[in-house]
Known about the structure:
Residues 226-248 are annotated as: Disordered. It is built from six helices and 16 strands. It has helices spanning 9-15, 32-42, 47-52, 106-113, 146-163, 194-211; strands at 2-6, 19-23, 30-31, 54-57, 60-62, 67-68, 74-77, 97-100, 120-127, 131-132, 135-144, 168-174, 176-179, 183-191, 214-220, 225-228.
Amino acid sequence: MNVHVRLFAAAAEACGKEQIEVSIEHRAPHTIADVRDAIAAAYPMLEEILRRAWFAVNEEYATHDVTIQEKDRIAIIPPVSGGSQPQSLRDTTWPDLLITRDILSVNAMYDHVLRAAAGAVVLFSGTVREFTRGRQTDYLEYEAYEEMALEKMRAVKNACVDRWPDAHVALWHRVGRLALTETSVLIGVSTPHRKDAFAAGQFAIDTLKRTVPIWKKEFFSDGQVEWVGPDGPWNPTSDQEGDPHATS
């Protein structure tokens, strides 16, 4: 069976292409483990990335025992960092979920989640900082697996509403090149009570950073370039809360 696999971020850079094809020779059922082994054999430059990456099948994270079919959409998902047309600040058609190359507006987010039933509005703005672990940053570039990222953002929103039924939640993320102090991610939450708004906002950003396939490439002032990911093991399917790799 021939399998087509999409590559993103560090995987695409290491391989020099955004899609590869591998062949699995033995009989079905075929699994993600078979795909992984075939890729490791055919593309040794991806071996290190495969040790820490996850796979996605039809825009869902997949463990190595997941069975696959020839027409499944398969992608390598390296550890995550954790476009639309411009819209006016008062445009009522702003979506709850957005991936865009346009500048993100705090005012637009505030207006979007504000409602009469809300006694509290909490906004989180993740911005590009100048220093990371003592190294000076010139600028960042963000890349997303957009189809899957939007679905995972939807899952974050739904999880928030499950926990805080009165919450209105919106998640926006920017991709492309960002300069220092520019906003990379905006999360807005409105609830009747402030305690719920703070808790839902914290949950939303922590879960987004862990589960949504968006990668950050950091360009340092010394000329070094690095894809940013967690320092330790990464499991996007775990239920853990908290941000093990703060990246904004």
